[in-house]
Amino acid sequence: MRIEPFDMERDVLNVGDTVSITEGKLPHAYYYTAEPAAAMSKNFTSENRITSATGTVVSKTKIGASFIVEIEFDE
User: Fold this and answer.
1) Which domain holds residue 48?
2) What contacts 75, CB < 8 A, 6 or more positions away?
3) What secondary structure does DSSP assign to 9-72, as a single string?
């Protein structure tokens, strides 16, 4: 199992939700979006890319006006 934090601006995901993720590419890194544009990951190097297409929200923490959701992947 692999758990990664995602930043969420709007309160649209809850613990237990299954989310699909899409991969975006920068010149020297990759990032992931929990669809439909609900949350965004940090940047990852090639060797640390997320290989799963779906994950499950395992925690949600309110930080100021936004949230951090932790998504668990089967990796």
Assistant:
1) 2-73
2) 1, 2, 50, 51, 52
3) SSS---TT-EEEEEEEE-SS-EEEEETTTTEEE--B-GGG----SEEEEEEEEEETTEEEEEEE
Domain count, the chain: 1
Residues of the chain short of pLDDT 70, as ranges, are none
The pTM score is 0.92
Q: What is the pLDDT of residue 36?
A: 84
> What Rg do the C-alpha atoms of the chain give, in angstroms?
12
How much is the pLDDT for 8? 96
